[in-house]
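Suppose you are handed only these lines of text.
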Amino acid sequence: MDTQHGAHGGMRFDEASWEERYGATPALWSGRPNPQLVAEATALTPGRALDAGSGEGGDALWLAGHGWQVTAVDFSTVALARAAAQADRLGAEVAGRVEWVHADLTRWAPRTSAFDLVSAQYFHLPVPDRDSAFARLAAAVAPGGSLLVVGHRPSELHTGSPEMFFTAEQVAAALDPAAWDVVACEDRPRTAAGPAGHELPVADTVLLARRRA
Ligand SMILES: C[S@@+](CC[C@H](N)C(=O)[O-])C[C@H]1O[C@@H](n2cnc3c(N)ncnc32)[C@H](O)[C@@H]1O
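From them, the structure of the protein bound to S-adenosylmethionine can be written out as follows.
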């Protein structure tokens, strides 16, 4: 996700607020897949993927284009409609590999052990919704499958609402060490376009874990 509107200070993150945010602009995100997803999923054998908080579909469509069968979940109908329209533009083969699901991930439970990859990219929830939602996402990973959780580290682009941020270590700590191998648990620096258009240093917090087969 390339942030076009990054500051979190004073913003609300309920369904109506996200709907309003998407409705206020023709495109909130760049449409490109997120760099950590591309970095980690390129090496995986395509299978069934769940994209949690899929936004305008950049990741889901990249996965579908690389042979994955994708379930993309978001509670913004505007974002889902944009994603589905882009899927249609990419053609029937890609469009046919994505199921767009309108659901609130603080309540919606994916099928247990159903996905070879569960990806949550910049899916920041207020505490206490986060722990239970992430636990349901982890439970959806099939034996041998991967859980990829990527979040923003606070930066000039992301001020305020400190409770929305998490670290890869916090996500890893909630995984049963008897069932999971942690492959990556770290912060990765990169640059992103700031509000004035110039590049700013940011960092992602990245957890990649594999459920033991
Ligand atoms: C920061 S955006 C990231 C979108 C996408 N993953 C990307 O990287 O471009 C977070 C997304 O999560 C969605 N979202 C936030 N809370 C949600 C919830 N409780 N249930 C479903 N979707 C949610 C928002 O609508 C938004 O599309």
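What can we learn from it? The two ends are 31 Å apart (CA to CA). The domain at 15-211 is CATH 3.40.50.150 (Rossmann fold).
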